[in-house]
Amino acid sequence: MPKIAVTRWIPEDAAKILADAGEVKLSAADRPLEPDELREFVAGSCAIVSMLHDRIDGDLADAAGPGLRIVANVAVGYDNVDVPALAERGVAVTNTPGVLTDATADLTLALILALTRRIGEGERLIRAREPWSFHLGFLLGSSLQGKTLGIVGLGQIGQAVARRAAAFGLRVVYTGRSRAASEFEFLPLEELLRTSDIVSLHCPLTPQTRHLIDAVALRTMKRGAYLVNTTRGPVVDETALADALEARAIAGAALDVFEREPEVESRLLGRENVVLTPHLGSATIETRTAMAVLAAMNVAAVLGGDRPLTEVRP
Fold first, then answer.
1. Among this protein's residues, is 313 annotated catalytic?
2. Which of 118, 202, 279, 288 is catalytic?
3. Active-site position among 37, 121, 191, 261
4. Of the CATH numbers 3.40.50.720, 3.40.50.300, 3.40.50.2000, 3.90.230.10, which one belongs to the domain with range 3-97+285-303?
5. Considering the entire predicted model, what is its pTM?
6. What are the residue ranges spanned by the domains of the chain?
7. In the annotation, is 40 catalytic?
8. What pLDDT digit, counting tens, does each position of 250-294 carry?
9. What CATH number is given for 101-276 in this structure?
10. Among 69, 232, 238, 265, which one carries the catalytic annotation?
11. Catalytic (active site) residue 232
């Protein structure tokens, strides 16, 4: 039977699909594998089920051997996979689009609310048993109604965030590589940064978007604006973000992803106007199961001689 290397635990529903498609080898280490460990682990595999922390490139494909036919990445983003290098070797690459759209959009709205209404600060105060009482000036946040949300990248997740934001009374504008067929207003990036009260990032990580939000971009934003990132950490220059927050150039930030994940810029950790979550965008039982099942179905299709369901092309 074809060997299937699974780099980290996956839900049982997906594991069953893979077991029917081949001989499953699951990593015993419940952590990201080091590059040498990963190369050794995938040797002789026909399929690799990878996670977003696994770097999949030509060297890894060569380590797997000439029998490698598919890499199924359990994520919608695939910046961790060198798609052209695998295509040169005749290896299909798949991702898991669509199934995590609503969960990530929900978390984005949760971060926006936590940030603008200072929910984290209030919860920390209660847990620390600090004295408090109702006061008209106590822990005042910012209302969303009538404010402008600038979405960077109006793909499936960006659109889902836009629809939710509109229901909260936010005016929505967006920017991206091209104009979308949308009821929302398109703005160039600089104008969006200059005029938005909240900037939410939903663009893929590419060489062009790495550090898209840098010191210059942060200086362009309003002093009272908030930054939210639920896409990929390196889209934001975390050092520049910490500098901007210390200088009070923007009002606050909420991050679900980090530039050197799981490491976080230390200056962000102690700031009350920063909300931090450990990459929870797709973290519902239903969504993570659906992601793994889609990845498994891609593997089963390719090993069965069919086309993959959600192939990523160079």
1. no
2. 279
3. 261
4. 3.40.50.720
5. 0.94
6. 3-97+285-303, 101-276
7. no
8. 999 999 999 999 999 999 999 999 999 999 999 999 999 999 999
9. 3.40.50.720
10. 232
11. yes
